Amino acid sequence: LGQCTPVCSEGEEYIFLKKDCRPQCSETMQEYDEVTRSCVSCKSGTVFDASLKICVQVCDEGLEFFPLEDKCQSSESLVDLTPNQLTELYPPYGATLNPNLKIYEALCDPGLVFDAVLELCVPPCDAGKEYNVEVADCVDVCVGGFEYNIELLSCIPICTENTTFSQDYFSCVPICEGDMQLNSETMMCEPTGRNTPECMFGMTYYPTLEMCLPICEEGEEYDIVNEQCTPCNPATERFSSGLKVCIPICESGLAYNVNNGVCDSIGVQGYEYNTAMARC
What is the pLDDT of residues 34-46, one digit of tens each? Predict the structure, then answer.
């Protein structure tokens, strides 16, 4: 690829377009699928690219696959430039041609590297990280089914149709309309007020505990044992205003499961999480 890449652990290899290390497939002509978390053969209409280590589209005659464009286009769109032209287009040091990615990569100042996706010279990031222009720092690379949220500074699930991301649950939840509201126990839309008892003044209903308890400040949950409000641990927990309790901060690729109270793999398009099998 003509670039410095991270040193991967044993049994892994660096996938440039993923900007991270992935398990190395033992069989040739196979790529690692993030959804099934297994090595799979290339689908019909695609072919394995040994330099990129992924399956790419098979192009018609006279066309070439451009990885960053993710499409086939005329090879004539890539014109060889002279050193003087490269310096004019990519000051101050010019650029070099990357034949694998089919792009020109700027020669950067010392301490910076060229990011082919952003087409900028940026600080180098560790494995599993990528440079984000808006944040102006290295952030987590989100795995399949997740996208980076600048406001939360973390990866959040990409929600399917009729669902939306809820910061309260840090997961995708159904979109409730009209007089319907989300039941935090079943995670389904139900008529407003159903199965929610009225509490005394100064008390609120805790759905996970199924009882009325004193109202705590935002970011605090009620400790039944010590009978007092306690703040969430910002290093490991986040407050869920829907559940009114502290829930764990899940790693990238996981989301909080209300049913079992732990971080689980979250279903992406076409998948759902099976609690009994503990997988999508």
Answer: 778 888 888 888 9
